[in-house]
Design goal:
The complex is a heterodimer of chains A (about 475) and B (about 525). In chain A, about 75% of the residues lie in helices and about 0% in strands. Chain A contains 20 helices and 2 strands. In chain A, strands 1-2 form a two-stranded antiparallel sheet. In chain A, helix 14 (about 325-355) runs antiparallel to helix 17. Chain A is globular. Chain A starts with 11 loop residues before the first helix and ends with a helix. Chain B has one domain (about 5-505). Chain B has helices at about 5-25, 30-45, 85-100, 110-130, 135-140, 145-155, 160-185, 195-200, 205-220, 230-235, 240-265, 265-295, 300-320, 320-325, 330-370, 380, 385-400, 405-420, 420-445, 455, 465-480, 485-500, 505-510, and strands spanning about 60-70, 70-80. Chain B has a two-stranded antiparallel ribbon with strand order 1-2. With about 525 residues, chain B is mostly helical. Classes of the chains: A mainly alpha (about 475), B mainly alpha (about 525). Chains A and B meet through helix 14, helix 16, helix 17, helix 18 and helix 20 of A and strand 1, helix 5, helix 6 and helix 7 of B. Chain A: It is a multi-pass membrane protein. Chain A: Pfam families: Proton_antipo_M. Chain A: Belongs to the complex I subunit 2 family. Chain A: It catalyses: a quinone + NADH + 5 H(+)(in) = a quinol + NAD(+) + 4 H(+)(out). Chain A: It is an enzyme of class 7 (translocase).
Chain lengths: ~475, ~525
Amino acid sequence: MNFDMSAFAIASPEVFLLAALCTVLLMDLWVAKGAPLITYLATQLALWATALLVLGKSFNSEGAFITGLGGMYIVDGLGDILKISILLISSLTFAYSRKYLREQNMWRGEFFVLGMAAILGMMIMISGYNLLVLYLGLELLALSMYALVAMQRDNSNASEAAMKYFVLGAIASGLLLYGISMLYGMSGSLNIIDLKAYFQAQAGLHTNILFLFSMTFIVAGIAFKFGAVPFHMWVPDVYQGAPTAVTLFLGSAPKIAAFALLIRLLADGLGAGQSSWSQMLMLLGLLSIVMGNLMAIAQTSLKRMFAYSTIAHMGFVLLGVLVGTEDGYSAAMFYTIIYALMSAGGFAVLILLGNRMSDPDNLDCLRGLNDRHPWYAFIMLLIFFSMAGIPPTAGFYAKLSVIKVVMGEGYLLVALTMVVMSVVGAFYYLRAIKLMYFDEPEESTPIVAEVDFQVLFSFNGLLMVILGVFPGVLMGICSIAVSTSNL
Amino acid sequence: MSDWPILSFLIWLPVLGGIAVLMLGDRAGAREGALIFAVLTFLSSLVLLGYDSKSGEMAYTQSIPWINAFGIEINYMLGVDGISIPLILLNTFTTVIVVLAGWEVIQYKVAQYMAAFLIMEGIVNGVFVAMDSMLFYIFFEAMLIPMFLIIGVWGGPDRIYATIKFFLYTFLGSVFLLISLIYLYSKSGGSFTLTDLYALELPIEAQMLVFFSFLLAFGVKIPMWPVHTWLPDAHVEAPTGGSVILAAITLKVGGYAFLRIALPIVNDAALQMDWLVIGLSLFAVIYIGFVALVQDDMKKLVAYSSIAHMGFVTLGLFLIFRLQATYLGGDGSTSAVMAMQGSMVQMVSHGFISAAMFLCIGVLYDRMHTREIKAYGGVAGRMPWFAAFFVLFAMANAGLPGTSGFVGEFLVILATAKANIWIAGLAGLTLIIGAAYTLWLVRRVLYGKVTSSEVDQLQDLNRREFMILGTLAIVVLWLGLWPHPLTNMMEASLANLLEVTAPLSELGAKGAVK
């Protein structure tokens, strides 16, 4: 096999991001010594340029998917939309992080470099069309994240969180790899396109013990990345222990990558076994929704509350995927993107309320926000109502889409559980709103943020209503993206 | 004129006005700005009076494809008929009153207060004009947000408990509505449009499930016994304006939803289960009436009386099947339309009367800062004008002939008597119980000895209060003495709805003839 560099053209955005990552690392060492802002600006520039590259390529491919690098890599509409979402949301989270990093004395170029490495990993997870490539992407993401969580070396909570994350993450990777090895043993190939063809030709998959066995491991590995119950133990601890800027990043974009992994592995590669894995996903999804919402009620830490609410939201995504139809995948994709946006806004408020003296984490920091700054309180109100799924916010359409596809497949009881648990979920979001609107503020320090933070945060919140009044646009994009991919 | 999207205008003008007031902030001018938007919306809603009530068809319609993805198709489809127009006018009128009523009383975060009511007005208009069931649901749910904040921010000491209870109660009711709508959507071949859902022929088992989810969602909203317990709490804790909107507007949304959604879509189930709703309504009318009698908080008393009055609304609405069946081929349709008219008039009239009652209590509360009935006594001597209004509205609340309260109750009882004299007898008890609790309230608050030095120093109504209560008094008397324009407006539309809901031909075939 002769090695042709031009074969890498299919991955040009990823190659570009890798080059940019190295450049930023070097720049941070020499150029940006006196002016740390340069690292930040270069990172933002790199993310936007990568997004433009992805966008430019997607116009050339004209709706069809293309594979390359010996069938190990795929570029399709689904991947392009997910990559662009990841890049833009990461850019948003980096912009939020700037305030936090400066105030908490954590401003180091590594944050951005590791962040870009994580993004590169996510992009590989999206475009990987080979089990090992997917795994490499996943590990690149995970390793960067472990390091990011542990960035505050002398903070024992952060170190503990990183340790927990690392150990459990390694186990999950092991589970996934074990599943992959069995798939390889059965089919003799690692390429998803071959796996798909192999399993489609097999009869009686749902009674094939080896297949079910390997799928169980793969589903467990993916569920860990999603933080679905019962593989959720790490989520609250890591969310709470990590520096808020890292939690913000960890809680938003990687969920989109996890969704991509789920689609590529289960929906695409093992699509023939849909009747089997959908039952596993249903159990995981229902448990996540029930446990996530119930546990969130008991939290006093805002970060932990968001962590449990994440678990519940991921349950919705899993339930959207399990129906195994294009509508279901699109609905889950729409949900994931909306969720990433809500999550970014939710953690941003913690950064907003922090200052040099304090790094808030408790729910009480929201107290009296409407008195302290009505506009920020309003923005958070929109984000909370969107998380609770109350119209006319974007979160409602996300829930509606998933519930609709689930009911369309006849899972009435599942749909009932989803809506009843939404009511339970509404309670803790309402409690947060109550703190902001109905309680007296505890402190009167003015809330200061730079203009870019203010604009982005406002936009983030207003987007919930804009997407709530015109949800059709993003829903349409998700629909087209899924229909043009090779599912 | 027909091209001008008046209904969209009625939704979005107050919403945008609310946002503008919010932007203006608490500087001087928030009140004036809110009033301008409220009055503008009210004036533009008067355009709807030009509706051709003879036809009873949907008018001013507008339909734009809104969402079409993942197999979900929702249309931005609006229209009004004689049923929605009175409620829209009630809404736009009440909002003006509420803005005026909060003029001096509200000093804390005025702009947000006014904005919340304006946005609420737009959303409620959306509920009344939506012709697509999912669009209806979106407005129906969105209503919770401003109300939650109104009670929570400007409410009384226990406001947090009350507002969260209010929110979760109504939210729990309506999520089942969502499931039902999605189910109906899948059965109708992919349409949320109300007219398509009317045409559905579902098996009775499915209809039953859908019917009970509707009953839960709308029963909580209206509210019916035994899911009414959020209402007294919400009313007591809400600021005066919030109570007015709750009683005058949001309860009507429940009644309207029964009429527009529950009855026509699952008519077979409604036919089979009408005894249940009639029973619950009678229970509310009688039992809740007695509960009202023993309240020692004025707002709670009016809140319970609201539940009793809403019992009349549901009673009238669910009588139509019996009326149609009893008088098959005779004047069944006329009586059924009369029952529905009675319910509608009761809703509109209760909107004005309960608004007035809460405003009266607000007038007292602003001066004395208590709603305990015991704290009052002999107010009539110190506030003669106030006493005059209070007696008038209390009489209207008790259903005195000549006031709007009488018309609705009379029509419903008359229709009930045609269906079943026993039900009519029980429903008629309300005239006694209602009179008992309102008159006793009047006696304790207005008459007797002056109880305290605070009461002794009470000031009579100022010009603003006089104007507000005076306007309401005129409306209450006008609807009582000459209700014809109101009943006329809705007659043809109700007859059309009856034709969809309980067609004579089908009732006979289904063996419902008694």
